[in-house]
Design a protein that fits this description.
The complex is a heterodimer.
Chain A: E1 2-7, H1 14-23, E2 27-32, E3 44-47, H2 68-77, E4 81-85, H3 87-95, E5 101-103, E6 111-119, E7 135-142, E8 146-148, H4 153-159, E9 163-167, E10 178-182, E11 188-191, H5 209-221
Chain B: E1 2-9, H1 16-27, E2 40-45, H2 51-66, E3 72-78
Antiparallel strand pairs in B: 1-2, 1-3
Chain lengths: 222, 79
């Protein structure tokens, strides 16, 4: 199973993501944002956290228009799997591959701590290792994590069972306590919390490892 | 020609930065500040000399990059 981790100027979770994917059995390639194609046979594209382009204009806005995004879009349109964490989630929203956008946190503060999430659905390659309603703990580290789905968006996401994770206690004002959402084909996941920072006992928690095991497992069988 | 693009959060979208500025103005003793909305201004210097064509170009730039139309509105004026 082959994964590609995109790297933008200002990405800072790219290597964490690569380590977590490798530990789950993926063969990982790092792909610089100026590339115009993905490695042959890429099954999963991971878009890492960080502060691509210093969050200039809006978080993720410039990265979402960089050359590698055309290849990401082709991959997604072919039904390829995509996983965006934190800034990666913001970038996926800016590309339009996921609906809505992430605004400044309600209290205007950058928040960096572990939070408890409830798994919203087990019906995706990423979340199939859990039961819906199960609680997991992942760190968050963001200034712009206040999700808004746009008019009618949340009803649609809820109705289609596309909320992958919800905050148990809402830290940032996010609409409907949304922490992560799926695309309509359920193959693209964007989430603000960092499962890759809770994937090894040395990080103080291993809840995140289940996500990487689940998605690499599904894709290895495919 | 030069154009000025003003980007503001849509009416009804909560603006926590504007709210914080409003509070700060209140604590500085400015009375009667009912609301503050914070946005951004982008100045464009374009080769295009025809105003209508330049504005059309700027509108495309807003749709594709400068504004996030899920939450933001934009206004284009000649600078």
């Amino acid at each position: 199973m082959k994964a590609a981790v995109l790297v933008f100027p200002g990405s800072n979770c790219d290597r964490d993501l690569a380590v977590a994917l490798t530990a789950a059995g993926a063969e990982v390639a790092m792909v610089w944002h100026k590339e115009t194609s993905l490695p042959e046979g890429t099954d999963l594209v991971a878009v890492p956290g960080g502060f691509s382009y210093g969050d200039y204009l809006r978080a993720g806005a410039i990265a979402a228009r960089s050359p590698v995004i055309a290849a990401l879009r082709d991959h997604a349109e072919r039904g390829g799997y995509v996983f965006g964490v934190c800034n990666g989630f913001q970038i996926l929203c800016e590309t339009g591959l996921l609906p809505g956008t992430l605004m400044r946190n309600r209290d205007l503060r950058y928040i960096c701590r572990s939070v408890t999430l409830r798994v919203g659905t087990a019906d995706s390659a990423f979340t199939s290792g859990w039961r819906a309603g199960e609680k997991v703990s992942f760190p968050i580290a963001h200034h712009d994590g206040n999700y808004t789905a746009g008019p009618g968006g949340l009803e649609r996401l809820t109705g289609e069972d596309r909320v992958a994770f919800r905050y148990v206690t809402n830290p940032n004002g996010s609409e409907g306590d949304v922490a992560g959402i799926l695309s309509d084909n359920r193959r693209i996941l964007g989430m603000m919390p960092h499962p890759e920072r809770a994937a090894d006992p040395a990080q103080g928690g291993t809840d995140g490892a289940a996500l990487f095991r689940a998605v690499t497992g599904v894709l290895a069988e495919a | 020609m030069k154009l000025r693009v003003t980007i503001m959060l849509k009416t009804g979208v909560l603006d926590p930065q504007g709210a914080a500025v409003r509070h700060a103005l209140g604590s500085l003793g400015f009375p009667g500040v009912d609301d503050v909305r914070q946005g951004k201004v982008i100045e464009l210097d374009l080769d295009e000399t025809d105003p209508a064509a330049a504005e059309a170009q700027a509108a495309q730039m807003c749709e594709k990059l400068l504004a996030n139309t899920v939450i933001e509105d934009y206004r284009i004026e000649r600078a």
